[in-house]
Amino acid sequence: MTMMITAHHNIVSVLLTLIICTICCGSIIVFSMQTKYDLTNMMGIMFILSMCLMIFGLVAIISAIFFKVKFIYMVYAALASLLFMFYLAIDVQLLMGGRKYEISPEDHIFAAVQIFLDIVYIFWMLLSLFGSSNRD
């Protein structure tokens, strides 16, 4: 699915997004491995932020369809990419262990898929921010 999405964008914008995503995800992973702060305590806050983002997404869809507001999707993509970056930091700390919540070693496949999906969602949101379509 990611290849289908990137096929509709220019090569330069896809490569720029890939570089930005790689730098952001790498720095988030290094930060969450080295920090003393326990981000796994913030699962309730993340749930509330996710619900707020979902409601904002519904408002963005309605405003884009009925009121022809185009920039609100850019705001949605920026907020979603920040939210998924925070999810990536939490998931890395869950995988590393030693915090309040942790994933058991038997669930390493689940943790790998979770981190992979976080990175893919970050890439999609950044591509919708920085990507220029072939149709433009």
How are the elements arranged and paired?
Blueprint: H1 2-7, H2 11-34, H3 43-66, H4 71-96, H5 108-130
Helix pairs in contact: 2-4, 2-5, 3-4, 4-5
> Can you tell me the number of structural domains?
1
The pLDDT mean sits at 91
Oligomer: single chain
| Strand proportion | under 5%
Number of helices: 5
- Main sheet? none
Low-confidence stretches: none
- Considering DSSP H and I runs of 4 or more, what fraction of the residues is helical? over 70%
Distance between the termini: 21 Å
Radius of gyration, CA atoms, in whole angstroms: 17 Å
> Helix/strand/pairing class, anyone?
mainly alpha
**Number of strand segments:** 0
Dominant shape: globular
How do the SSEs run, as a string of H and E?
A: HHHHH
Give me a quick take on this structure.
With 136 residues, the protein is mainly alpha-helical. It is 76% helix and 0% strand.
